[in-house]
């Protein structure tokens, strides 16, 4: 499992990883996107709880 974490760390420190992290932070700061994500999470939670698993 540590190999996976090492690869994630390498990606996060790469130029592409830094761009991706910056893009995610900007998207998360947008109130419309945040509300959209909350609705999606709510749908997924209600679907899981209703399935009987």
Q: Which key features would you list for this structure?
A:
53 residues, mainly alpha, 3 helices, 0% strand, flat
> Could you tell me the radius of gyration in angstroms?
16 Å
Oligomeric assembly: single chain
- How many DSSP helices? 3
Report the biggest beta sheet as strand number plus sense, adding barrel if it closes. none
Structural category is mainly alpha
Short description:
This protein has 53 residues and is mainly α. It is 89% helix and 0% strand.
Could you walk me through the main structural features you see in this protein, from its secondary elements to its overall organization?
The mean pLDDT is 89. This protein is 89% helix and 0% strand. The chain is mainly α and 53 residues long. The protein starts with a helix and ends with a helix. The chain has 3 helices and no strands. The radius of gyration is 16 Å and the shape is flat.
Give a topology summary:
Elements: H1 2-13, H2 15-29, H3 31-50
């Amino acid at each position: 499992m540590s190999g996976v974490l090492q690869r994630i760390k390498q990606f996060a420190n790469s130029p592409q990883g830094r761009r991706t992290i910056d893009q995610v932070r900007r998207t998360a700061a947008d109130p419309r996107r945040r509300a959209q994500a909350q609705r999606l999470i709510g749908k997924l939670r209600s679907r899981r709880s209703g399935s009987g698993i």
